[in-house]
## 1
Amino acid sequence: MSQQSLFSQTVSRLSQASVRRRSNSHAEVLADQGALDPTHPGLRLPEGDPLAQSMWYQSLPPEQQSRIGFLRLAVSLKTAWQFENILQQGLLHRALYLSEGTEEFRYIHYEVIEESQHTLMFDELIRRWSGSSRSSRSSGLSPTLRGMPSWLRHVAAQLMRILGRHSPVVFFSMVLAGEEPLDLMQRQWLGTDDLPPIVQQVLQIHVAEEARHISYARAAIRDEAARLSSLRRRTVAFFTPVALGIMVRLMVRPTHDLLAGGIPRDVLSEVYRSPAGRDQMIDGVGRIRALLAELGLVDRTARLMWRAMGI
Ligand SMILES: [Fe+2]
Ligand SMILES: [Fe+2]
């Protein structure tokens, strides 16, 4: 079977799954108007989280641990929806140049629909964190989260549109560098006991739907890599670790908002340098690296770049 038809079969199967497994659970989450207690014991950081392993966090009273846990979760959701917004722009831009009726054209639109639902759900949880209601956003008790710096949002949005059309291997690798570390973090949260029901519901929906998005990005990388010329392969191998190193830091080290939320700077630096902190970055891109290596896109020079980027 040719690569092309294998790819379009995979994408067609993913489209069918998007239709078949579509649930109304997003609507339930959005209709839920209940408050969320920031000191809920289920909001304490998962044990595997690098910050949870710090002496500073462990010496906090339980209620304060929950507040910090909720902050960490809210910050990751803020970065996540900004990333998903940029991802949707890249995907739509890619679809603009595909013929309508192709399997990939259809699938992209299912994925964009799901990502928009995710943004709404994440925004809903961020509102619970900030204590603001849908009618008055300004009544928030907590500071507004920034997520990605605005210049970077701007640059990333322009860049992802160009890459989605002209350098799909780098584009889909960056997509995975957003989706996979987030997926690992969300699975860690789902592995804890006693999560507040709305948090559990949001994370379960997200993890289930992201599995399709991850499959699509991986299939697209395989398909596109087979068509690269040898010069393009070397350039892609060289630049991908740079892009991934930046992406994974954005996803797992949202320093600005964590400092603003009251976590001391020296605690964060220590957490980042700790074995758990380093592993979180390396593991976040571990599966992408294995895929690129399998496709011959991690040569000797590239390996130096991966190391230089700390991944
Ligand atoms: Fe998503
Ligand atoms: Fe996604």
Note: Residues 3-226 form a domain with the Ribonucleotide Reductase, subunit A fold (CATH 1.10.620).
## 2
Amino acid sequence: MSVLEVKGLSKKYPKKDVFAADNVSFDVGEGEIYALIGPNGAGKTTTIRMLATLISPTAGDAFMDSFALTKNPDEFRKRITYLPDEAGAYKTLTGIGYLEFMGSLFAKDRAELEEFVRRGEAISGLGEKLRDKIGGYSRGMIRKLLIARAVMTNPKLAIMDEATSGLDVINALEIRKMIKELSVNNKTSFLLSSHNMLEIEYLADRVGLITAGKITAQGTIPELKARFKSDNLEEVFVKAVSENEVL
Ligand SMILES: Nc1ncnc2c1ncn2[C@@H]1O[C@H](COP(=O)(O)OP(=O)(O)OP(=O)(O)O)[C@@H](O)[C@H]1O
Ligand SMILES: [Mg+2]
């Protein structure tokens, strides 16, 4: 069963001639990790920001539990969490203070809030550093905190735009492992975007390749490798993108 269904989602920004997202359709199943890949400016963030209810679609719609993004953005928003591609966090709060504040927006009572924060603490892997002010965190530490925040409330769907960008190899690996575990053990669904093909090969159950606003190829990684006669996803990416430039 699909957790998220995206149907013909399109976005034309004011004063632009072309659609940044053009009739984008895909679905994400329960516990599935779906990855959007594509060149810079292809429309990944635009698609993600529409689904995060931050910008409104020009056309098309998306559905979660039969709630439509366009008609019921509040119901839609309750079911997702969103990690932006570039994000800071309130520098004057401590890590734990931030988790408590963000948790309080989702928790129905004190007990649930405590459970969220406990989960967030464990997932962040930041240990005692959570007692420090965020102003003194490194980029990687902030990223870990934001990722912990995005999954601690048990969303049906966690949307993460370039989750591990800027992280060192060890931190990126830890975060990938955590995403995989949550999808397998917790049945959390993920919509990810990434430029790291190694990361996508490790994580993604299915991939949608966006070129110039359109999904031009979609499938499991073995399916895509077979279709583009490639041994790895980087080769798939290059072939799929160049194929679309010719057309
Ligand atoms: N706020 C905006 N106003 C106008 N045009 C925008 C805006 N945001 C994005 N665009 C344009 O929409 C297109 C898609 O951009 P988008 O950020 O969705 O790409 P992306 O796939 O996320 O790229 P990247 O890999 O660089 O993150 C680009 O042509 C971009 O210039
Ligand atoms: Mg982007």
Note: The longest strand covers residues 2-11.
